[in-house]
Amino acid sequence: MDFYEIRGGRLDVIAEESEHHDLSRASTAMEPYNVTSDRGRTFQKFSVNTNESLHFEPCEDIPPSPTGAEDGNDEDDVFMEGGPESETDTIRNRLQGKVAEMESFAGHLEEIFLTVEENFGRQEQHLEQHYNDVLQTLSQRYDERAAGLEEEKKGKLEALYNQLLACGRAMDASKELIETAQEIYRSQDKRLFLKTVMPTIKRIEEFAKGEQDLTLTTRLDFNTPLADLSDVKTMMDSINVVPAPSAPVINPQMPNSATQTSLRVCWSLFSDDTVEYYELYYRPVLEDTPAVSTSAVQESKVKVKETHCTVTDLLPNAQYELWVTATNTTGISPASEKALYMTVPSPPVIKQRECTSCTEAALIRWESGNTNPVDSYTVELSEMGTDGTQSNITESIVAVPTCQCLIQLQSGRRYLISVRAVNIGGPSDRSEVMTVSTTGTFFYLLEDTAHPCLSISEDGFTMFYGDEELPISAMALEDNTFARCVAVLGDLIQVRGRHYWEIEVDDGTEFRIGVAYEDTERNSYLGANNTSWCMRHILTPTRHKYEFLHNGCSPDLRITVNPVRLGVALDYERGTLSFFNVDLEQHLHTFQCHFRNYVQPCFSLDNPGALTLHNGIEAPEYAFI
Predict the structure, then answer these.
(1) 258: exposed, middle or buried (C-beta count within 10 Å: 0-12, 13-18, 19+)?
(2) 129, 130, 301, 611: most buried, per Cβ within 10 A?
(3) List of residues 6+ apart from 492 with CB closer than 8 A
(4) Which of 251, 252, 241, 310 lies closest to 276, judged by CA?
(5) Among residues 271, 277, 279, which one has the least CA distance to residue 328?
(6) Sign of CA dihedral 473, 474, 475, 478
(7) Are 602 and 532 in contact (CB under 8 A)?
(8) pLDDT by residue (tens digit) across 175-234?
(9) Quick check: 545 pLDDT over 80?
(10) For the chain, how far is it from start to end, CA to CA, in angstroms?
(11) For 477, how many CA atoms within 13 A lie in the half-sphere containing its CB?
């Protein structure tokens, strides 16, 4: 089908307005073309295939994708909102939708055409078989009747022949008596006359006494009884009676054959049976319902004439048991084997409090939101422009097996990220879109690691240590929580690169701030072991004391100006952990260390107070000099 055979005058007008587009014809597909700005930069190409949806693919000389594109001028963007290209895209997508609808309708007509052809062929074969059976029966009846007539003719001829012989004998005897009587009458010898006349008279009297049957012993016409053609009549009547169909065969579920609330089911009939209509039965398969008691679940049915059906008003991400029967004027076929189909999953739910990012990547976590397992997930992302508009280019990361994905991104950009769940029925709708910025490192505090005396704010960035001390017996300690040090870890993304965050402190709070391995000892203080590095603030009667602890050791340093906002710079490549007084842009101390594993930010309060985390900010120039 030529995509452009269906375009109207409006598309022609748009084509004249869009000087940047070269639209070529093709018999079954639209040839790819490039969208070019006034400066000659090729942005993207698309293709429309009669059996597929609209696909966007990067051209060979396309600018980098959302995860690899360099910053460009806004005036270079040919997809400015309200421009002719945007209107062309809208009309093009609308036409593509019309083409998809017509292709679907054409496919539906083709299936009906094939069904009519199959039914006609079966009916023709059925009629020919009945015709041959009737001819064979009539031929048998003819042979039987011809044989009967032959026997009847033979009997009639034999009877007539015997009667003819009897007449001949009677005529011979009569002739002989007449001749004898004449001889006696003519005799001149009186004595011989008297001697022979009496016996002759007796013979004549006896002959006269005998009655000769002069009627025909057989009828000249033949007996024509009515032929018993009841079986022929039955066969003639059965021409319009077809046998009940055999059991259909329901097909396994095809990929992308479902939505959240509907299923497209297909089946086949591998016989010459004629079918008037089909009945498709279906019912949900509940997890808490044993297989033997599925009959208790209410079943529904749909009546159709084709060998396919779309079942609607279903539950998302649910398994359904389906079977089908075929019916004609004679009866109903046995049910097909039961098949299991699944509707498309519900959209996943992104767990924003568990998503982290840095200047190079983002770790997105989500929960399925579905009771039945899904096959995989697809993460979609597109870049946001400086004016807040979304890019027309969307990248997809497919076949993600778990509920998290680490995505490589470009620094200093903003992205819109969503997730789809995928099963054999197809992909779900998009999840709620999450905005990710790669300006700086962004993470939340891990509440499951917090000491029971610590409280975490609702936004996940501030920790509080109250005045009231809890007895140890009242503390709900878990394996992952700090038991001795009133501390909490941060959920830093596990990417080896540069990370920077800031902490707001006050003079009256004793704290420990730094990094630690995820498996650092929970019964130890931060900085007192070889798995943590921290800056410690201690209040003494005379001054504020600061220590930079690792494995219980600290260099002899003195800080004259108490920092109110501390900056922490972690550089995996150089193996450094640095601390800064943000207000003064003053370097305080740097740990030189080789991190064997990924580390996590750690925060501890040694007396009642609060610490506030500030992240997702761009690292200052002095942080990684």
Answers:
(1) buried
(2) 611
(3) 356, 441, 443, 499, 598, 599, 600, 601
(4) 241
(5) 277
(6) positive
(7) yes
(8) 888 888 888 777 777 777 777 888 888 888 787 777 777 777 777 777 776 767 777 777
(9) yes
(10) 63
(11) 15
